[in-house]
Every structure is written in structure tokens, then in C-alpha cells.
Design goal:
By secondary structure, this protein is mostly beta strands. It has no helices and 18 strands. The chain is globular, with a radius of gyration of 17 Å. The two termini are about 30 Å apart.
């Protein structure tokens, strides 16, 4: 935990170390409850950390699964429903995980996307998770976390890459996707969650290298 109240003189409040954080692939925060979630790809695991006392940050629980969370890669959180979503790079899953009891997280359901997936980003206003894969992006209906389903599988090796990232502008219905190998960022229209469409791309071998 880092005190950033004075950005010109930041300082440590507390820290945690351990195998739970050996390869931290992604993280997400529930600010309403002061919880942080960490995806650990080396342990096929997601860990919940309580930072309500920034001077005494503690682990509340860890959930591991060698298949559903195999090489855990992406994580995002729905704080309203106390559900965290996590992906498996090697076994192709997006998982909905209940953390209403923070000391005993549990799987609600898992959806096999048939492709190694990395990042997950949530559009909670429309109950959709966007899940990035090596050359594609899945739109997943999460309105019923007990029975998630694929809305669309958008495919383009030009737009998406596992080593890149995706960012959502839910106000204007945009997704921005980066592709490091192609030195490219793409803009997509997400107004129709079952049919996201390409708008434009920007390629620059210097500024986007």
C-alpha cells in the first residue's frame, strides 16, 4: 500500500509478500469494500487482499484450481454483486467467482471459450464481459453468472493479441485494443454487444513500438 496523498512525496504504508504474488498477472479493486484481487499465473490462483487498514494489509482468501484457473491471467470485479471474474490462459476459461464471504471465495460457474484467453474487462451497465484471446475478443453475457454465454467471437489477428490490452469507454460504447507486435491500437464500436464492429486503427512503429 502506497500513500499518494502527496504525489510529490509518496511513501509506503504496508506491503505483503509471499508465493500468492509470485507472478502477478493482473489485479482489480473493489473500492466499496477495500478489497484487491490478484491473479497469480504461476499458482493457478486468485487472491483477495483486504486493505481497509492500509497500515495492516492482509490476505483474506486464495482460490486455486489447476484447470479453471490454469495460468490465471486476467481479473475484473463486479462490486455490486460481489463477483470477481478471472480467466485461464491455458485452459480457456472465464470464471465467475463469489466473494460475498471474503474468507471463502467459491466458483459460481465457468465458461470454456475454446481458446487461451488473457484479459477480461467488464461493461457492467450491459452485463457483458469482453475477454481477449490471441487473435480474437469474446463478448460474454454475464447477466446470469450461473450460466454465462458467448454473444460474439470477434476474430482478427490484426486487432487483438494476448500480449496486448483492451480498454473500454462504456459512456461512448468504444473498445480500444492494443497489439504490440503490430505497433497498433484499434477502436471498435460496442453499441451492439453481440456484434462489435471495427472503426479505425492507428499504426506507428515509433510511438506505438
Amino acid at each position: 500500500a502506497i500513500d499518494v496523498l502527496n504525489a510529490g512525496s509518496m511513501s509506503f504504508k504496508d506491503n505483503l509478500s509471499g508465493s500468492e504474488f509470485s507472478i502477478g498477472a493482473d489485479s482489480a479493486v473493489d473500492t466499496s469494500r477495500d478489497y484487491a484481487f490478484f491473479a497469480n499465473s504461476s499458482r493457478d490462483e486468485i487472491t483477495l487482499v483486504d486493505f481497509s487498514d492500509v497500515n495492516n494489509v492482509v490476505i483474506k482468501d486464495s482460490l486455486a484450481d489447476a484447470i479453471k484457473l490454469d495460468t490465471t491471467r486476467g481479473v475484473d470485479v463486479d462490486s455490486t454483486n460481489e463477483v470477481v471474474f478471472a480467466t485461464s490462459l491455458f485452459d480457456n476459461f472465464i470464471n465467475a467467482i463469489d466473494y460475498s464471504t471474503p474468507t471463502a471465495m467459491s466458483f459460481i460457474s465457468s465458461l470454456d471459450l475454446g481458446r487461451g484467453v488473457s484479459l477480461v474487462k467488464l461493461d457492467l451497465a450491459r452485463d457483458v464481459a469482453y475477454v481477449q484471446a490471441d487473435d480474437r475478443c469474446f463478448s460474454v453475457d454475464i447477466s446470469n453468472t450461473s450460466s454465462m454465454s458467448i454473444l460474439q467471437e470477434g476474430i482478427s489477428s490484426t486487432i487483438w493479441d494476448n500480449s496486448g490490452g483492451i480498454v473500454l469507454d462504456t459512456t461512448n460504447d468504444y473498445q480500444f485494443a492494443s497489439h504490440p507486435t503490430n505497433d497498433r491500437v484499434s477502436a471498435l464500436n460496442t453499441a451492439n454487444t453481440a456484434s462489435i464492429t471495427y472503426i479505425s486503427g492507428l499504426v506507428d512503429a515509433t510511438n506505438l513500438n
